[in-house]
Amino acid sequence: MRILFDAGHPTHVHVFKNVIRMLEERGHRCLVTAREKECTVELLRALDMRHIPLGNHSKSMKGKLLKLFYFDLKLLRIARDFSPQVVVSKGSPYAAHVSWLLRVPHIAFKDTEDARINDLLALPFTSAVVTPACFLKSLGEKHCRMNGIFQLAYLHPKYFTPSVKVLKELGLGEEDRFSVLRFISWGAAHDAGLAGITPEFAERILETLRGYGEVFISSERRLPPALEKHRLSLHPSRFHSLLYYADLYLGEGGSTALEAAVLGTPSVHVEKVLSGAVAAPSVNSGVFRELRDKYRLVYMYEEQEEALRKAVEILENPDSKAEWRERRERLLAETVDVAEWMATFIENYPGEA
């Protein structure tokens, strides 16, 4: 079977990489198309995965609408040459449109409830939508639920072994304490009306956390000089090892907050509503709620001051890391092998995994 995967974000590459490996080991032929957002294409190269870049995202809403037609046409040309029997994405409108035009199934693996524009563009052209069981919405007859979250497809111990070499690369020993900060661009369609940490408060966070060890900053946006000198210089494929060994993650990136939680690293997420919504999307996310309320692996705050207070509380507790590791073990024990489940679902579609 020929399977086309469409990736628009580095996280999508991680979610699909082990699924693709399994499918190829079973004799299927896979191809990845990718928008050049952050390190998406760089990761595909590092993983030596067969892929075709589609070009860069646009940051403006007008540009995104124009790019919709551009990516649709470019992906359609590639898909016609590849002749896929199924198209897979994390809810890509482009993948949905092209699969519909080619009259082949589109399977969307989705975990974001608050993506109205994307859903309007993609779901009518999608054959099946797979979400975690904790997803808060019902998406009708197309909707399938899975007892797991997508971060486990690549961060479960079966698939991920942290490399202690990353610490040596950064001049750290195994006993050294450090935190990871993350700032995003707030340029995605679903980020409209949202904000996170102000530049002024970011410097206060940095100085506070430095009282407990080194601080490394991952950022999609430009940083003031005081923060820029702490910007992380590390290959994207090694970032999860750093996150695994960290004593704390604090930031605006929802994907990174979930990854830290799944790795057993104390995770604090900041996301504030400026207009339009009653609550931040993370509050309305089944995955965030599950990891917060059931497993106590992540905290979510709209106010940056509250987030910093929680971060200090975590760092002041010498048992925090051990407690998070225990909570992670419970999560692993109570969920399925997500990568295996996804591969089997794709391979057997329209049957069941």
Secondary structure elements and pairings:
Blueprint: E1 2-7, H1 10-25, E2 29-35, H2 40-46, E3 51-55, H3 61-82, E4 86-89, H4 93-102, E5 106-109, H5 116-122, E6 128-132, E7 143-146, H6 152-155, H7 165-169, E8 178-183, E9 194-195, H8 199-209, E10 214-219, H9 225-228, H10 239-245, E11 248-251, H11 254-262, E12 267-270, E13 272-273, H12 286-294, E14 298-301, H13 304-316, H14 320-333, H15 338-348
Parallel strand pairs: 1-2, 1-4, 2-3, 4-5, 5-6, 6-7, 8-10, 8-11, 11-12, 12-14
Antiparallel strand pairs: 9-13
Characterization of this structure:
The protein is of the alpha/beta class. It folds into two domains: about 1-150 and about 335-350, Glycogen Phosphorylase B (Rossmann fold), CATH 3.40.50; about 165-335, Rossmann fold, CATH 3.40.50. Helices cover about 40% and strands about 20% of the residues. The protein is built from 15 helices and 14 strands. It has helices spanning about 10-25, 40-45, 60-80, 95-100, 115-120, 150-155, 165-170, 200-210, 225-230, 240-245, 255-260, 285-295, 305-315, 320-335, 340-350, and strands at about 1-5, 30-35, 50-55, 85-90, 105-110, 130, 145, 180-185, 195, 215-220, 250, 265-270, 270-275, 300. The strands form three sheets. It has a seven-stranded parallel sheet, sandwiched between helices. A five-stranded parallel sheet has the order 10-8-11-12-14, sandwiched between helices. Helix 1 (about 10-25) packs parallel to helix 2, helix 1 crosses helix 15 (about 340-350) and helix 8 packs parallel to helix 13. The longest helix has 22 residues, at about 60-80. The relative contact order is 0.13.
